[in-house]
Design goal:
Elements lengths: L1 E9 L9 E8 L2 E9 L6 H18 L6 H15 L7 E10 L3 E7 L3 E6 L3 E4 L15 H4 L12 E2 L7 E6 L3 E6 L1 H4 L4 H8 L13 E9 L5 E4 L8 E3 L7
Parallel strand pairs: 1-12, 2-13
Antiparallel strand pairs: 1-11, 2-3, 3-4, 4-5, 4-8, 5-9, 6-7, 6-10, 10-11
Helix pairs in contact: 1-2
Protein name: Serine/threonine protein phosphatase PrpC
Organism: Rhizobium herbae
InterPro entries: PPM-type-like_dom_sf
Amino acid sequence: MRIEANWYSRKGTKTADNRDHAGLGTNTSGVMGIVVDGSTAGANNGEYAGAIVREMVVWFCGLEEALDPDVLTRQLRGIHADLQGRFPRGAASFIIVHVAAGGRTAVVHAGDCFLGEIAPGDRIRRQTRPHTLANVLAEVPIDELSKISARHLLSKSFRSREHMTPEILETDSLPSVYLISTDGFWAELSAHEQLAVIDGRKVEANGEHDDCSVLKLVITEVADPELIMGEGMPSANFHNGWTTLTC
């Protein structure tokens, strides 16, 4: 399994800092990608998002046991307890994608970060459902969900005041292009603009807008697992096991 990764992130106008953070790690079990979107409410949620990413990547890089969703969720609970004292009002959305060397993929998420896949015809096909009040009772297509104000109210998240059990999805790892994004990408950009961003073209933003970020993973079939970092990585809000962190 060969994975090529690229990270795009643009600061919005709603906060002084970019609160979208991402990271990648590798170990004998495969490759893990994580994207965390710190809430715009509260002063330190950008730092909170970065701390979640760093702790997850450091832990994953040093992990020697077999990894499954239960192990991931236990670690998330431990990180939640560890960060409560430093960030008593912390709030964030997150999504973790673990691509195993054996060909299985596990997705663990809570909040409005999103996993999509490039489908035939350059369509972005939904792989997860954002946890918002706008779609808590019924399925809502992503293009419609983006227009509903209640999408800003989350039914699940990673917040300090209480630990919420994340949603888990397991599937076969198939060659494709996967997009792990924050809501500034999937909800504020048109389908045309989303494709432009992942093709490396610049998209201008007008008026008030959220941080906009996407981690692109291109998975292809090869004999041995291999992770290739795209040009321009890492950035200030990207954390990995080769430069920013010690693994």
